[in-house]
Amino acid sequence: MASFKIFENVCMFNLKAHNSSSLNGSINVPGDKSISHRSVILGGLAVGETIVNGLLESEDVLHTIAAMREFGVIVKKLDEQQWSIYGRGVGGFDEPKNALYLGNSGTGVRLLLGLAAGNPINAFFIGDNSLSKRPMRRVTAPLEIMGARFVNRSDGCLPIVCSGPKHLLPIQYELPVASAQVKSAILLAALGAAGKTTILEPEPTRDHTEIMLKQFGAQINIKPFNKDGREISIVGQPELQAKTIHVPADPSSAAFPAVAALITRGSHIKLKNVCANSLRFGLFEILIKMGANIKIDYCDNTEGEKIAHLEVKSSSLKGIKVPAEIAPRMIDEYPILAVAAAFAEGTTIMLGLKELRVKESDRLSAIAKGLVACGVKVEETIDSLTVYGRGGLVKGGAFIEANMDHRIAMSFLVLGMATEKPIEIDDSTTIQTSFPNFYELMTQIGCKLTMPSSIK
Length: 456
Ligand code: S3P
Description:
Blueprint: H1 2-11, E1 15-18, E2 24-27, H2 33-45, E3 49-53, H3 59-70, E4 74-79, E5 82-86, E6 100-101, H4 106-117, E7 122-126, H5 137-145, E8 149-152, E9 160-163, E10 172-174, H6 180-190, E11 196-201, H7 208-215, E12 220-225, E13 229-235, E14 244-246, H8 251-263, E15 268-275, H9 282-289, E16 293-302, E17 305-313, E18 321-322, H10 334-343, E19 347-350, H11 363-373, E20 377-380, E21 385-388, E22 399-400, H12 406-416, E23 423-425, H13 438-444, E24 448-450
Parallel strand pairs: 2-15, 3-14, 6-7, 10-11, 18-19, 22-23
Antiparallel strand pairs: 1-23, 1-24, 3-5, 4-5, 7-9, 8-9, 11-13, 12-13, 15-17, 16-17, 19-21, 20-21
């Protein structure tokens, strides 16, 4: 475990990325964050023992586990990434004695707000500084229509108290924003309502909740809605059956070593057992259109989720127009796409990015500011970003503030692996929220990451 210790120390401080080449090797990136949250939550709602293999043991997921224990669910670690969950059944949750601290996790808090609303209890939700700035009305508004009550700050943000009613009402609700978190919060609440809830989703977003609910035996139906959308209906008060779950690797985490290999010379890496759900795979489709040498080998279909091995080689990339319609399928990948775009030949225009303003940080402005500091010309509007690619030659030499945002931190570290001068980020602890062994895996394939001497 020596390498873990090294990471623990490094992770407390700044990290610096240096020009790297010939990245090589085959790695398993950690389990998918979205699927990990959902497996703990649905395990807690089922009757019997759910076993989760490959769980992402990152801060975000550990906060969800701590919250589930507050609701009275028994969650035990059996082995590395293997957990057992004894569910309480739908509607059987205890009232938490303590405030539920969800750290940095938007998924954790929004899904658990839905879950709490389906139980006649009061639950207090708090988070870190980043989470306490993020909009929650998108979730509390539909839950209020179902009969839940909330006390929150006047801007709708955390801290929030949720009071679930004795009898939650089923609703029909059209999502005003493309958000899997909002959809999932309503679906989880709907489990506690007597009757059928219907959600109209104009633009499809990641469907892990629907897939997993079906696996646990919920009565859930999905039909087309409008041009590309979906109508999802679920019947409340089911008895969910405990399951064994295998969490595939997170495509959003795989994106970092993949882009590092694309932009560094002489690289050839393999990423195994990556979740290849088409609603998560937009980045890889776009990179391939930009000329990336990425081979996708679809190898399995585990519990309704497609799995693939990826093989990635250094590539000369070309700028591209990324249409707004694809945004929900790659919403977390714009920071790392912008890094790839900075090295491409020509201009990359990314549209439909309004939601990036309300992620762990204002990602649109963080990407633009960071790229400019590294010598890349960009144009930022309220919901778009244009990156003028440097055809392989990016200066770098910047100090980047991660703003408590793991994906901004990891994206600029990847950028620094191919810039002329190193790039330093102010705080690497935030990486623990989604990719706890980032340092270990990236250095294993040959990335040069160091702790700056000024803080040694
Ligand atoms: C997630 C949904 C997305 C994504 C987040 C994880 C999920 O958020 O950005 O990292 O697990 O449902 P939105 O629902 O706000 O788009």
